[in-house]
Amino acid sequence: MTDNDTHHHHRHLPPDPEYTAEKLQELLIQKGLVDEKTLDEIVNIYEHKIGPQNGSTVVAKSWVDEEFKKLLFDNPTEAIRSLGFLGRQGEHIIAVENTTETHNMVVCTLCSCYPWPLLGIPPNWYKSDSYRKRAVKEPRKVLQEFGVELQDTQKVKVWDSTAEIRYLVVPMQPEESKGLSEDELIPWVTRNSMIGTGLPTEPK
Fold first, then answer.
1. Would you list the domain boundaries of the chain?
2. Three-point CA angle 169, 120, 88, nearest 5°
3. What letters, b where the CB count within 10 A reaches 16 and e where it falls short, cover 4-17?
4. Which position among 113, 128, 161, 193 bears the catalytic label?
5. Taking a C-beta distance cutoff of 8 angstroms, is the pair 195, 126 a contact?
6. 108 is catalytic
7. What are the per-10-residue average pLDDT scores of the chain (204 residues)?
8. Nearest-CA neighbor of 169 among 154, 158, 184?
9. Three-state DSSP class for 89?
């Protein structure tokens, strides 16, 4: 695989839940049922705190539970179902593991397909034309802009998320976090590390 190798299987698209949510948001604001500032705060909490927690739990468990890790890569749907995290826009998940040889990165070149049940609301940059195009053409440069510096020996695999298949990047566990419990590890697993545009970091 080269830096420009992209895995994709786009076919028909289901109704876009994001479009539906935007229309609902407009209607709620127009009718005065909720103000825009409150909605922004709710979205921010779901995007950065509540949303990614499910994915972080999956990754943290894979770091400390070898049987679960094997199931996650052999049958990710079943592994995620066992934790109760399956749902619409996340029925079919493929887990891809970062190693010292390979760094994985997820994009959706056609629209903004994203594993909502695991990562919550997709960030704006994930939906941008710039990211969708550049992640495929110049992944290393994009990663550098996110602060991810890879070894020259590491290759980058870019995975194209679709309406049928979503991807979860399982980042490498930081050496300094080894020995911690599953609950202690969850805050280390950031949203971006599960997209491939970040690395796990020690919580502050």
1. 18-195
2. 90
3. eebbeebeeeeeee
4. 113
5. yes
6. yes
7. 49 47 70 72 63 92 98 95 73 92 96 85 91 96 97 96 92 98 97 98 94
8. 158
9. coil
Q: Among residues 112, 177, 181, 193, which one is catalytic?
A: 112
C-alpha distances (whole Å) from 180 to each of 11, 43, 199, 201 are 42, 31, 17, 14
Residues in contact with 164: Cβ distance below 8 Å, sequence separation at least 6, in sequence order: 9, 11, 92
Q: Active site residue: 56, 62, 82, 108, which one?
A: 108
Report the Cα 204 to chain-centroid distance in Å.
21
Fold of the domain built from segment(s) 18-195: Nitrile Hydratase; Chain A (3.90.330)
Residue 111 falls in the annotated catalytic set? yes
Residue 113 bears catalytic tag: yes
The reported pTM is 0.78
Please give the helix or strand (H or E) that residue 76 lies within, else none: helix 76-82
CA 198 from centre of chain: 10
